[in-house]
Amino acid sequence: MDKSDFINGLIYITLTVFIWVSIRRVLLDKEVKGVSWMTLGGLASRSCWNLYFYTHMTLWYSLVGVTTLAFSEVTYCILLYKYSHDFRKQIHEQVVEPVKDVVEAVIDKIIPEKETSPSEQILHESVEIERMIGEGCPHTD
Predict the structure, then answer these.
(1) Predicted model pTM
(2) CB 66 within 8 A of CB 44
(3) Residue 61: how many CB atoms within 10 A of its CB?
């Protein structure tokens, strides 16, 4: 037994435990803040490469450890992508859309509409009057 291979395998197993603690947290919270799935994707790709490398180098303890780690990192990466996507959608609905509406309203106030002809103004006013009649005119005192 190669002692360095055994220690390397133990390190991978320990890292696997830490990854599963994070996986549990994501599953409980169902959201991701401050962690990018792309960073973990890079680490997972390295672990997947090590599956081949340790097999080729016949480092069996390291292979067992990195197998558990690669599986855990890929699982974690998928969950991070899934819940960060939901989070981005939620942010878009709660922040981006209202801000977009405010910006559009400000732009409408700042940038004057094009000049309309008198006939277009009359048409617009008649449509507005019909809309008000359909909704019921506000009463005046």
Answers:
(1) 0.58
(2) no
(3) 20
